[in-house]
Known about the structure:
With 147 residues, the chain is an alpha+beta fold.
Amino acid sequence: MFLIGALAPACAKAPPPLQTPEVTLAGVSPVALDIFEQRYEVRLRIFNPNRFDVVLAGVRYEIEFNDQVFARGLSDQVVTVQRQGTQVIRVEAISTLADIMRQLQGADAAVGAPEVFRYRVSGTLDLRDYTSPIAFDHRGEIRLPSG
């Protein structure tokens, strides 16, 4: 009987089942450009499909443009995303000279003007009350006008 009484409070505090929040790239703006390192303000949109608020306690991410790593970043910003709502967070991303060189080499390798600009944002979310990071991976593309 004691065991049941001791376990009851632990069961009551278990977080509800989670539908994975979706993360998309809302924007990238340069902040500081130097020869070896470039800093950007990245806007990530977090979609919460759950019927309860989720508290974001951290994010780690990588951004790719046209299948090449562009920048990466992390943040320990605490943000509440309302139930069945969205929230845009502003975080910092860093690229290096090597990242930029890969972007330029990829552009040189393309024959003619590209018709599609591909992007990807992937990483993990740390959510309060959940012990394991939640992975995300979003890809998109923008059709470019042909000349």
